[in-house]
């Protein structure tokens, strides 16, 4: 039996601009997806938490079955494997759930078949899965699902790892508003088509925040990183990616002592992240967020 794991991710700085070739600062979190794969008569993918049991041969109208099919095509000879995935991430919430699932399924199948891949190659191959869900993925989600840690991702370049001087302690809150990455990426594309110069300026601004953010993480400067996150949130709001609920979550986190807060991932709903000084203050921030969020939890990165 093969086993695989794909991490969830949070984007500290740089979502959306990363689709247009700018860098993003992201980290893998310990919550993710575990998958197992075992030889079977015919391939199928089971996701018990979603009550899904799919066969690529008969459920082709189901995107998840098509994504699974795309991964089976990766091998010279299509394998026959029964894959089961245990998903511990909310879907459509900006935490890279679909990429974590794709990476976990691929890793479990590789393990069952004795195929060895480096993290970077696995992330690249898992893009075939991601493309089924949205046409133009930057690759940051599969890269972080596969590699973990903190890193600067830029399309077409090798992942550049960043060693945090001290662990990053984040309060993560789910707004409970489901969002579609594809729709949000499409919305930014339409704005870019209508007013290219202004949107490119916004992306350049975000890229500058990412460069400073990398330095702040390496220096362990929580105050600077928090300010950069606030600024990034403002620029994302200017791209119409925030919601009333996400604004309320950011405000609540800041009022409860977070050093900075922003939406993370595609926006239009999904999750918010707040940077905290330490675990104790993160506990207070989470308690305040739980009053209005669907759920809130602490993610510690870079230990
Ligand atoms: O919402 P998520 O977790 O799928 O994150 C999407 C990140 C984007 O930058 C908006 C899209 C991408 O492909 O990088």
Give your account of this protein's structure.
- There is one protein chain.
- With 303 residues, the chain is an alpha+beta fold.
- The protein contains 9 helices and 11 strands.
- The protein has helices spanning 63-72, 97-113, 119-133, 140-147, 181-194, 196-219, 222-238, 244-255, 279-290, and strands at 2-13, 24-39, 44-47, 52-54, 81-87, 150-153, 160-161, 168-174, 260-263, 271-276, 295-301.
- The strands form 2 sheets. Strands 1, 2, 3, 4, 5, 6 and 7 form a 7-stranded mixed sheet that branches. Strands 9-10-8-11 form a 4-stranded antiparallel sheet.
- Helix 1 (63-72) packs antiparallel against helix 3.
- It is globular.
- The protein starts with a strand and ends with a strand.
- The relative contact order is 0.18.
- The model has no long low-confidence stretch (mean pLDDT 95).
- Bound molecules: (3R)-3-hydroxy-3-methyl-5-(phosphonooxy)pentanoic acid.
- The site of (3R)-3-hydroxy-3-methyl-5-(phosphonooxy)pentanoic acid (PMV) has 15 residues, from helix 4 and helix 5.
């Amino acid at each position: 039996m093969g086993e695989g794991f794909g991490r969830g991710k949070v984007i500290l700085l740089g979502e959306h601009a990363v689709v247009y070739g700018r860098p993003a600062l992201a980290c893998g979190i310990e919550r993710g997806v575990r998958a197992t794969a075992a030889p079977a008569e015919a391939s199928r993918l089971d996701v018990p938490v979603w009550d899904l049991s799919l066969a690529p041969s008969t459920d082709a109208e189901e995107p998840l079955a098509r994504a699974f099919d795309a991964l089976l095509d990766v091998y010279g000879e299509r394998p026959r494997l029964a894959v089961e995935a245990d998903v511990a991430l909310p879907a459509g919430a900006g935490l890279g759930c679909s990429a974590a699932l794709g990476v976990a399924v691929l890793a479990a199948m590789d393990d069952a078949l004795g195929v060895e891949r480096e993290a970077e190659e696995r992330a690249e191959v898992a893009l075939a899965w991601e493309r089924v869900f949205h046409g133009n993925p930057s690759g940051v989600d599969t890269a972080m699902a596969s590699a973990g840690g903190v890193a600067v991702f830029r399309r077409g370049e090798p992942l550049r790892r960043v060693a945090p001087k001290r662990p990053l302690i984040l309060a993560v809150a789910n707004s409970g508003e489901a969002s579609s990455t594809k729709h949000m990426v499409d919305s930014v594309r339409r704005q870019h088509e209508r007013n290219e110069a202004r949107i490119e300026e916004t992306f350049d601004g975000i890229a500058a925040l990412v460069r400073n953010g990398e330095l702040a993480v390496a220096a362990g400067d929580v105050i600077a990183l928090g300010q950069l996150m606030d600024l990034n949130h403002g620029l994302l709001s200017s791209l119409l990616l925030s919601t009333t609920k996400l604004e309320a979550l950011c405000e609540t986190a800041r009022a409860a002592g977070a050093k900075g807060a922003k939406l993370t991932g595609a926006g239009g709903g999904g999750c918010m992240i707040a940077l905290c000084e330490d675990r104790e203050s993160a506990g207070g921030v989470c308690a305040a967020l739980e009053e209005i969020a669907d759920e809130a939890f602490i993610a510690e990165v870079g230990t």
